[in-house]
Every structure is written in C-alpha cells, then in structure tokens.
Amino acid sequence: MLQVCLNGARSRDECPSLPVTPGELAVAARAAVAAGAEDVHLHPKDGDGRDTLEAAAVAAAVSAVRAAVPGVPVGVTTGAWATADPLARAAQVRAWTVLPDHASVNWHEDGAAEVASALLDLGVGIEAGVYSGTPAARRFLEWPGSHRVLRVLAEITETTPRDALRAAVGLLGDLGSAAAPVLLHGEDAAAWPVLRLAASRGLDTRIGLEDVLHLPDGSPAPDNAALIRAARGLLRRSGGAHPDQP
Length: 246
Prior knowledge:
Blueprint: E1 2-5, H1 22-35, E2 39-42, H2 55-68, E3 74-77, H3 86-94, E4 102-106, H4 112-122, E5 125-131, H5 136-142, E6 151-155, H6 161-174, E7 182-185, H7 191-200, E8 205-207, H8 224-238
C-alpha cells in the first residue's frame, strides 16, 4: 500500500505549493490518487496555517478530501504539537463530528494511550506512530491494545541515508512482535532510500510533501502527485532488489 502524506506540520514558508485549506487538500488528494496513492494522510490546519485537532477543521478537511476521492481511506494526525495537553487532546478527538477512517497516534508522546482509547471508542482506525530513536516501540508493544491498531507507522527520524537505513533495520527488529502491518517511511534526504527498503521488504510505505520536498533526482517536487508518480516507479523497480546497505 502506498499512502500519500499531503502536508504534515510544514508551512508555506517551507513549501509554497503546500496544500493547506480543505479545498487545496481535496485537489491535492485527487491528483495523488490519480497518480497511484491508495490512502491519504493529512494535517487539518487552522486559519493561520497551523495544525489543529479542532472538530470544525477536522470535519472540513476530511469531508472535502473524502468527497474528492470517494472510497479511499482518509486519515489525520493527533500530534501533540497541535495540542500539548494529553487530556485536552483526547477530549478534542472525542468531540470530532466527522470521523476520519484512521488517525495517527505517536507513542513517544505523553497521552498516547488516552488518545488511542478515544479513537477506539469512536471506531476510528489507529496508525501507531513509532519513531526511531525514542522508546516508542517498547511503549506501544506494552500497551494492552496494541493488537487493535490498523497499522504501525515505523517512522525513521534520522535524515542521513546511511544512519536512516541502519535505524530502520533496528526499528523493524524491535517491532517484530507487532500484530499489525507495518508502514515504513523516512524523511528528507532519507525518504527515498527508506522507501526502497520498504519495497525490498514488501512493506507498506508513504511519500508526500510532509516527508520530502524533492524528487529522487534532487529536483524540487512540484506537488504530491509528482512524488507519488516517482514512488510508483521506484516501487516497481525496487520490489525485488536489494536496498543500499546501512
């Protein structure tokens, strides 16, 4: 499965073409799905372009994207950078009026279990975000509900390709007992090497302006659809190949 991550916590200062409004997210999602994306992850934004978990913003973003790509799963973030207080974050999730198909929960953040419980109560699938270089894998696997998640996001935070590949191999080993499928991805300069590693291991992966602003050849990515097209090409070529070794 190839997921598109449309915008992330980035701003237009980093990427002028970043989709921010519900309408822009819908247009970007439609183009990315046409290019080969099978799932959508997005960060709802407030009027100032900052990530928010407020019900109205989540409803607007999810509804617009869902209408643009009917039948394609749509997910959102629950990152602590949007709402730092864990109890307030869980309360915001419980107040959602339009439910996404799934939402990511970062297990290195305080309150992950409370947010995950809120999602389970609502019937929203959980993407368990497990960052490399943190105790997230242990925390997640020790959580009694770990078998109930939709998938595990193995998120490689190291951005030097060699370090990222080494971290990815280690994190996949740490997650070996996870009951859910693993989606492996990297970021910035490591995004494409980690995507190749995911392909070589038959794992789900993702790409989009949240993770990387450049195409594999180093040129700036004009939009999410271009990243998805490049990823599709790499996945076809790399599926049976060995990735660069860490």
